[in-house]
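Quick start: what a row looks like.
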Amino acid sequence: MGNINRRTIVIALIFISIGISFVIKLFILQVYDPSYKFSAESNTRREIINYPARGLVYDRNGKLIVSNQADYDLMVIPRELKTMDSITFCNALEITMPELRSLFSDMKNKLRRRKISAIKPSIFYKQLSAKQYGYLQEKLYKFDGFFVQRRTLRKYEYPHAAHILGYVGEVGTQDIKRDDYYITGDYHGINGIESTYEKFLRGEKGYKYVLVDVHGREKGAFQDGKFDIPAIAGKDITLTIDIDLQKYGEQLMGNKIGAIVAIEPSSGEILTMVSSPNYNPSLLVGKKRAGNFSTLSTDSLKPLFNRPIMAWYPPGSTFKPLNGLIGLQENIIKPHSKVECHMGYTVGRFHQGCHYHYSPLDLRRSIANSCNAYYSHTFRGIIDNRKYGSVQEGFEVWKNYLVNFGFGYKLGVDFANENRGFVPNAKYYDKYYKKSWSSLTVVSLAIGQGELLTTPLQMANMTAAIGNNGFFYTPHIIRGIENDTIPSNFTTIHKTGIDEQHFAPIKDGMEMAVWSDEGTAAIARIPDLNISGKTGTAENPHGEDHSVFIAFAPKENPKIAISVYVENGGFGSRWAAPIASLMVEKYLNKDIHPTRKWTEKRMLEGDLIHGKE
């Protein structure tokens, strides 16, 4: 009997303990940890994402380039849908009944493929117009399962700089897998700085919880907003570009194919980066984006192609100053070294032509006159230097100087699609010529032709390095980030491996190219402004040669270095040199001298696409 009483007591104690545990647990859940109550009440509340305002974008002078505008999406919670007045719904959205059926069919397909949830909101109809939003708000209570969610779209304050800015579009499946910040229906930056600086610009999403009735109608804040999380706006950024200079460059390149890149040598900041043909960035905003993108992407002139960083061009004679620098560093030539030119460079049956000019020429005048013979002689001296054991070893020495100047590899500019260009190495020629080649075989590299290919950005960077007497900073488009710092690699100095004293005669020659009577770039003269430059004519197997020009100004402590490519423009002095000099003048003097207005007019009106010069 005693054992039975003890057993009864034990069982009773167990039940009492369990009961006490439940009481304590309920007390904790309801008093100390209301998050469980929050979860339990989920069937009476709705989570609304508060999308943050995207960071604003300014130019180097503080001018607003990119802002935001309000936009609204119609959201749906499939489980809450009920029979509705389809005609009124179609009228509110300004769509037809077949279009409505298509929207519902798309929703069902996504449910079946589990791309959306039946109990969570997803986008039903994107980007309501202001008229649609106003009308729908009055009728929304009639449509169970639907509500409107606010977000922002980009607003481009200028119809310029599209390739620099990029655009914003909806995330894809891979984007969501790479970054759990995103969910279906979110937007992110695509191309340009919108992509590169996405994590700064996007901000942080916030969340708002509202009470809803059985019809899905909002009845006020859930628990007075206790669980709401405010959105954090994206950080504003300042770019290095001058938007007025960008606008002017795009005007000068109107109806032409090519590129302009201008850099501030003392910092590596990109002042302008023009790709032509271009497009208005506003075309890729809102509901018309998909259609406009399709039109742009199928345009034969490739307006979406970012030529400054993606196009490969032979540099032509604009490469001669670099070969002159290598020749000086390798002690192959001196500033006073003279070479004869009899309408070109001739060795046996080989002849590389040149235009008529005074002969013989020293280094300075060889640049001013753009003498092919001088640089063929210099290039072969570098490759065949006896201190190197073979032509292959000499060639690798030459190639490494090019790499030091930023050729053959990506410079590391803050754009995703930068191209590396092409600098051949000795193995390339060993394979192609079965190891049977000489400096004469590849002498076209002396004048920037042959297999050598560079981007307009790389050429502007080389020009900046020359203006700096032997160093450069990685070109970049970011100047400042709100409450943050720009990447440190943009403030690191890169040395070219050329001693500083060798730059003086090269810069003298580039100055003479513009200012001497025999120079090839007289068209680039700017009154009261000391500009130094070099013309180039890049051979083009597919049509007329490309017009090329590089320049910096002023000669000492330059504030701008520039490269210009005009496809099928012929001689460098014909199109590229005038355009470059106008850009330099506009940037440094803010206006064009009256004596050069005729040049400006000819460049603005020139139409190489339709054959109207």
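That is the whole record. The chain has two domains: 46-239, 243-279+305-605. The chain has 21 helices and 20 strands.
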